[in-house]
Amino acid sequence: MLEVREVSKKFGSLIANNNISFDVEEGTIVGLIGPNGAGKTTLFNCITGMYKTTAGKISFQGLDITNLPPYKVARLGAVRTFQIVHSLKEMSVFDNILIGAYLREKNTEKAWEIADQCLQSCYLSGVRNVRAGDLAIGQQKRLELARALATGPKLLMLDECMAGLTSTEVNESISLIKSLKNSGITFLIVEHIMEAVMPIADKVVVLNGGIKIAEDCPEAIVQNERVIEAYLGQKYSKKFQLKAREEGI
Ligand SMILES: Nc1ncnc2c1ncn2[C@@H]1O[C@H](COP(=O)(O)OP(=O)(O)O)[C@@H](O)[C@H]1O
Ligand SMILES: [Mg+2]
Predict the structure, then answer these.
(1) Is the Cβ atom of 37 under 6 angstroms away from ligand 1?
(2) What is the value of pTM for the model shown?
(3) Is 56 exposed, middle or buried (0-12, 13-18, 19+ CB in 10 A)?
C-alpha cells in the first residue's frame, strides 16, 4: 500500500533520514520505533508532504506521491496525527471532528453522522460539547485520532498517539486500533510504549540516527542485538536505574 524507497531528508548538513526503504502492506499495522532524534517524525513529514524529500520515492496505492502537497496526500487517504496535539482549542470536540468529516463528505447531514460515529468509536461522547482546549491530554490524543478517522483514511499514521496516557487509556487505544484495523484501515505507528506497539504490530521498522537498522516481526525485533543496543537496551536500563533510585539502592 505504501512504498518508501531510498528516501533521504537533509536539514543543512544533518541527515535526518538516510536512504530509508520499507513497505506497509495493506491491512497491516507497521510500528516505527527508535530513540529520540532517530528521524521518525521527519519520515512522517516526508510521507505526508509536510517536508520535501532530498532524495528517494514514495508511492501510495501505486501512485507516486513524492513531494505532493499535504492536502493531496490526505485526500488520497494517507492521513496522519501529530505528536504535538493540533486541535482547534476554541472549538468544541464535535466541531473539531466535523472538520475532518467535511473533508470527506460535503453533505451536512452525512458529515454529522460520520462525526458522531467517530466521536463514539473514540470514546468521546461524554465530552461532545467541551472546548477542545479544556480536554485532558488523553482525550486530546483521542480527539486527534477521531478527527483523522473522520476523513475516511485508508492509511492512518499515528505519531506517538499514546504518549502521556494512563495505562487504562493505552489499553483502550490498543483495542481501538485493533478494531479499526479489522474495519480495513492500515496503520503506520510511531510509538515509544513498546508494551503497546509490540502486541499489535505485524512488522516493526527501527530507525537510529536517520538510518534503518532493522525491519522484522516484533518477536525478532525484541531479540535483535542492534536494536537492543540502540534503543531497547537503553530504555530498559533507564527503567532499571529509576527503579533502583526509587528503592534507594
Ligand atoms: N525542521 C527541522 N529543521 C532542522 N532539523 C530538524 C527539523 N526537524 C527535525 N530535525 C532534526 O532531525 C533529526 C530527527 O528528528 P525527528 O524526525 O523529530 O526524530 P524523532 O521523531 O525520531 O524523535 C533530529 O536531529 C532533529 O533535530
Ligand atoms: Mg518524533
Answers:
(1) yes
(2) 0.88
(3) middle
Per-residue model confidence as pLDDT tens digits over 182-232:
999 999 999 888 888 988 999 999 999 999 999 999 989 988 889 988 888
Q: Do β-strands 155-159 and 186-190 pair in parallel, antiparallel, or remain unpaired?
A: parallel
Residue nearest to atom 5 of ligand 1 (CA): 11
Q: What is the DSSP letter of 229?
A: I
Query: Going from the N-terminus, what domains does the chain have, and what CATH number goes with each?
Result: 1-77+153-217 (3.40.50.300), 86-149 (no CATH)
Name which residue sits closest to atom 3 of ligand 1, judged by CA. 11
Does any ligand 1 atom lie closer than 6 A to the CB of residue 45? no
CA dist., res. 150 & res. 77, Å (int): 11
Query: How much is the pLDDT for 162?
Result: 86
Determine whether the shortest distance from the Cβ of 208 to ligand 1 is under 6 A: no
How many A from CA of 116 to the centre of ligand 1?
36
Q: Which residues pair with 59 in a beta bridge?
A: 3, 64
